[in-house]
Write a structure and sequence with these properties.
About 25% of the residues lie in helices and about 25% in strands. The protein is of the alpha+beta class.
Length: about 170
Protein backbone atom coordinates (compact mmCIF):
# COMPACT_ATOMS: atom_id res chain seq x y z
CA UNK A 1 0.00 0.00 0.00
CA UNK A 2 1.26 3.52 -0.76
CA UNK A 3 2.32 5.83 1.99
CA UNK A 4 0.29 8.96 2.78
CA UNK A 5 2.42 11.79 4.09
CA UNK A 6 0.51 14.27 6.18
CA UNK A 7 2.39 17.56 6.02
CA UNK A 8 0.05 20.56 5.54
CA UNK A 9 0.05 22.47 2.26
CA UNK A 10 1.17 25.52 4.27
CA UNK A 11 4.58 23.83 4.37
CA UNK A 12 5.10 25.05 0.81
CA UNK A 13 7.54 27.94 0.65
CA UNK A 14 5.35 31.08 0.53
CA UNK A 15 7.61 33.04 -1.82
CA UNK A 16 7.39 30.56 -4.70
CA UNK A 17 4.50 31.34 -7.02
CA UNK A 18 2.50 32.52 -4.02
CA UNK A 19 -0.49 33.54 -6.17
CA UNK A 20 -0.63 30.18 -7.94
CA UNK A 21 -2.93 27.45 -6.62
CA UNK A 22 -1.12 24.21 -5.82
CA UNK A 23 -1.21 21.54 -8.52
CA UNK A 24 -1.12 17.80 -7.89
CA UNK A 25 1.56 16.15 -9.98
CA UNK A 26 2.82 12.59 -10.28
CA UNK A 27 6.48 11.76 -10.79
CA UNK A 28 7.80 8.40 -11.97
CA UNK A 29 11.14 7.23 -10.61
CA UNK A 30 13.38 4.53 -12.02
CA UNK A 31 16.97 3.33 -11.69
CA UNK A 32 18.93 0.23 -12.71
CA UNK A 33 22.60 1.07 -12.23
CA UNK A 34 24.53 0.96 -8.96
CA UNK A 35 22.41 0.62 -5.83
CA UNK A 36 19.12 1.35 -7.59
CA UNK A 37 16.96 0.90 -4.49
CA UNK A 38 19.07 3.41 -2.53
CA UNK A 39 19.01 5.81 -5.50
CA UNK A 40 15.19 5.74 -5.58
CA UNK A 41 14.88 6.26 -1.83
CA UNK A 42 17.38 9.14 -1.93
CA UNK A 43 15.55 10.69 -4.88
CA UNK A 44 12.24 10.53 -3.01
CA UNK A 45 13.86 12.43 -0.15
CA UNK A 46 15.42 14.95 -2.56
CA UNK A 47 12.01 15.52 -4.18
CA UNK A 48 10.49 16.07 -0.73
CA UNK A 49 13.17 18.70 -0.08
CA UNK A 50 12.33 20.81 -3.17
CA UNK A 51 11.19 24.31 -2.21
CA UNK A 52 7.63 25.01 -3.34
CA UNK A 53 6.65 21.36 -3.26
CA UNK A 54 5.13 18.96 -0.77
CA UNK A 55 5.41 15.18 -1.14
CA UNK A 56 1.96 13.79 -0.32
CA UNK A 57 2.10 10.09 -1.30
CA UNK A 58 4.59 7.53 -2.44
CA UNK A 59 4.04 4.09 -3.90
CA UNK A 60 5.75 0.90 -2.94
CA UNK A 61 8.95 0.04 -4.78
CA UNK A 62 8.66 -2.30 -7.77
CA UNK A 63 11.24 -4.36 -9.66
CA UNK A 64 10.88 -4.64 -13.43
CA UNK A 65 12.88 -5.90 -16.38
CA UNK A 66 14.13 -3.14 -18.69
CA UNK A 67 11.63 -2.02 -21.37
CA UNK A 68 13.19 -0.80 -24.63
CA UNK A 69 16.49 -0.83 -22.75
CA UNK A 70 19.14 -3.18 -21.40
CA UNK A 71 21.02 -3.87 -18.20
CA UNK A 72 19.90 -5.09 -14.79
CA UNK A 73 16.32 -4.90 -13.55
CA UNK A 74 14.93 -1.49 -12.67
CA UNK A 75 13.60 -0.34 -9.34
CA UNK A 76 10.57 1.90 -9.90
CA UNK A 77 8.13 3.98 -7.88
CA UNK A 78 5.71 6.88 -8.29
CA UNK A 79 5.24 9.84 -5.97
CA UNK A 80 2.43 12.36 -5.69
CA UNK A 81 3.34 15.96 -4.95
CA UNK A 82 1.47 19.22 -4.45
CA UNK A 83 3.37 22.13 -5.91
CA UNK A 84 3.13 25.77 -6.80
CA UNK A 85 6.01 25.38 -9.23
CA UNK A 86 5.30 25.55 -12.93
CA UNK A 87 5.82 22.31 -14.83
CA UNK A 88 9.10 23.42 -16.43
CA UNK A 89 10.39 24.64 -13.06
CA UNK A 90 9.60 21.23 -11.58
CA UNK A 91 11.31 19.52 -14.52
CA UNK A 92 14.46 21.61 -13.98
CA UNK A 93 14.59 20.62 -10.32
CA UNK A 94 14.08 16.95 -11.15
CA UNK A 95 16.86 17.08 -13.74
CA UNK A 96 19.16 18.60 -11.10
CA UNK A 97 18.43 15.63 -8.83
CA UNK A 98 19.20 13.26 -11.72
CA UNK A 99 22.54 14.99 -12.36
CA UNK A 100 23.48 14.80 -8.67
CA UNK A 101 22.79 11.05 -8.88
CA UNK A 102 25.22 10.75 -11.81
CA UNK A 103 22.62 10.59 -14.59
CA UNK A 104 24.09 10.55 -18.07
CA UNK A 105 22.15 10.47 -21.34
CA UNK A 106 24.47 8.69 -23.80
CA UNK A 107 21.53 7.43 -25.90
CA UNK A 108 17.77 7.01 -25.70
CA UNK A 109 16.67 4.46 -23.06
CA UNK A 110 20.23 3.88 -21.84
CA UNK A 111 20.57 2.19 -18.43
CA UNK A 112 20.56 4.86 -15.75
CA UNK A 113 21.50 5.70 -12.22
CA UNK A 114 18.24 7.67 -11.90
CA UNK A 115 15.34 8.67 -14.13
CA UNK A 116 12.66 11.11 -12.95
CA UNK A 117 9.66 11.79 -15.20
CA UNK A 118 6.68 14.07 -14.73
CA UNK A 119 3.79 11.74 -15.54
CA UNK A 120 0.86 14.06 -14.83
CA UNK A 121 0.71 17.72 -13.87
CA UNK A 122 -2.82 18.46 -12.71
CA UNK A 123 -5.06 18.31 -15.78
CA UNK A 124 -2.45 20.03 -17.94
CA UNK A 125 -1.63 18.94 -21.45
CA UNK A 126 1.89 20.12 -22.23
CA UNK A 127 3.68 19.63 -25.53
CA UNK A 128 7.03 21.38 -25.44
CA UNK A 129 10.41 20.25 -26.77
CA UNK A 130 11.61 19.41 -23.23
CA UNK A 131 8.37 18.18 -21.67
CA UNK A 132 5.28 16.27 -22.74
CA UNK A 133 2.50 15.74 -20.19
CA UNK A 134 0.81 13.37 -19.76
CA UNK A 135 3.96 11.33 -20.25
CA UNK A 136 3.64 9.94 -23.79
CA UNK A 137 4.50 6.31 -22.95
CA UNK A 138 3.06 5.92 -19.46
CA UNK A 139 0.01 3.92 -20.63
CA UNK A 140 2.32 1.30 -22.17
CA UNK A 141 4.35 0.61 -19.04
CA UNK A 142 3.40 -1.52 -16.07
CA UNK A 143 6.26 0.03 -14.08
CA UNK A 144 4.40 3.35 -14.27
CA UNK A 145 0.77 2.23 -14.16
CA UNK A 146 0.92 -0.17 -11.20
CA UNK A 147 2.64 2.22 -8.78
CA UNK A 148 0.44 5.08 -10.04
CA UNK A 149 -2.70 2.98 -9.50
CA UNK A 150 -1.51 2.20 -5.97
CA UNK A 151 -1.50 5.87 -4.93
CA UNK A 152 -3.94 7.42 -7.44
CA UNK A 153 -6.37 4.74 -8.66
CA UNK A 154 -8.54 7.40 -10.30
CA UNK A 155 -5.67 8.14 -12.70
CA UNK A 156 -5.48 4.64 -14.20
CA UNK A 157 -8.23 2.75 -16.01
CA UNK A 158 -8.89 -0.98 -15.83
CA UNK A 159 -8.23 -1.12 -19.58
CA UNK A 160 -4.80 0.43 -19.13
CA UNK A 161 -3.91 -2.10 -16.44
CA UNK A 162 -5.16 -4.96 -18.57
CA UNK A 163 -3.05 -3.77 -21.51
CA UNK A 164 0.18 -4.15 -19.47
CA UNK A 165 -0.69 -7.29 -17.51
CA UNK A 166 1.82 -9.37 -19.50
CA UNK A 167 4.77 -7.23 -18.37
CA UNK A 168 6.88 -8.71 -15.59
CA UNK A 169 6.73 -6.60 -12.44
CA UNK A 170 6.94 -7.41 -8.76
CA UNK A 171 6.27 -5.36 -5.67
CA UNK A 172 9.23 -5.21 -3.28
Amino acid sequence: MGVLLAEPISALEPGINAMRDPVTAYIGLGANLGDARAAILQAIQAIADIDGLMLTRQSSLYATAPVDSSGPDYINAVVEVRTRLKALQLLARLQSIELLAGRQRPYRNAPRTLDLDILLFGNARIDKPDLTVPHPRMAQRAFVLLPLAEIAPQSVTAGQLQAVQGQAIRKL
